[in-house]
């Protein structure tokens, strides 16, 4: 056992807060530790913010330590307090369904065999049988209300109002750490920096209840260059579930990473050695227009989440839409996802090229559309168009209905003729 994993996490910028890093390093040096990270089923899928936590758990497992992945069947019924206001509670049936979906998602990123094989747990198993009296006596007595009121998220909600339900969330998450410490010998909980109060609440509960010293480690909030939270696109959240976000759209979300942040994302979201990332970024700085760093980031992450075949399809689609590949070679599912992401719309068979350019958002008016055609800047399936009044039929319809439209070199969309 080595302490290299901590050095690697630090080199990748993955440690924002820790309780006692030197003590944790020493404990890791003494032998494999058991650690956990939790995910609340407040949606039917995990998103890119959760992915950072899953990959951090994977890094620790690769270093020889044993992961427990907690899916919050009980905490998901409550919801962690948000700055913006009270959460809408989902039904027990909905949360149970999401627990199953998220359990399947997290299970794909860790190994279950061997001496440090992963275990998936559900906190409903120990929360549901517990009486309210036992919860208040055994857990509640260790939480001074004045310290709970001082938490940032609680303090920000005091004026607008916060329910006792959400106010008590920290007790439930802290109890998870205590239970896993007692049942499985867990000595480390990881999570995002926005969870730091909950993480340290568990550390303090174990100290008060059992007299044991355990650890917490938080990763930083991943941001865009302007400081806003990373993980949102114009079309919404970057989901891991292909039913909620197509692999092509997922690929594109990473391709669009800002130059100033792509190196950071490569270190934090991929398993490429730090030295390789540094070399890639040196190349990127010489030729930023080639976007080699973004393409590598998109390929690594799409392969990790969706598999190599989906990555290849996304790469083919990215090239083909801009005239660097054969459109007819793309599977319909990939072509459809790519065009929908680009703003494609359904049109009738008698729709002209001019009207299609307007409907797909590539032209603002009929005159602008006709001017694009006259100037040689309008393309149908990557072939220059010369008739503004043409309609689409026969061999022009890809997979029986799709047409790729392009204006100039960079503006791509399309229509589906129905």
Please give a structural write-up.
A motif ('KMSKS' region) lies at residues 229-233. Its EC number is 6.1.1.1. Keywords: Aminoacyl-tRNA synthetase, ATP-binding, Cytoplasm, Ligase, Nucleotide-binding, Protein biosynthesis, RNA-binding. This is Tyrosine--tRNA ligase. Catalyzes the attachment of tyrosine to tRNA(Tyr) in a two-step reaction: tyrosine is first activated by ATP to form Tyr-AMP and then transferred to the acceptor end of tRNA(Tyr). There is one protein chain. The chain has 418 residues and is an alpha/beta fold. 47% of the residues lie in helices and 13% in strands. The protein contains 20 helices and 13 strands. The strands form three sheets. A six-stranded mixed β-sheet has the order 1-6-5-2-3-4, sandwiched between helices. α16 (292-306) packs across α17 (308-321). The mean pLDDT is 90.
Structure, briefly:
The protein is of the alpha/beta class. The protein is built from 20 helices and 13 strands. The protein has helices at residues 4-11, 21-30, 48-62, 75-78, 92-107, 124-127, 132-138, 145-149, 152-157, 164-167, 169-184, 196-210, 247-255, 259-269, 274-286, 292-306, 308-321, 332-341, 353-359, 366-374, and strands at residues 17-18, 34-39, 66-71, 119-122, 186-192, 215-219, 232-233, 236-237, 345-347, 378-380, 383-384, 402-407, 411-417.
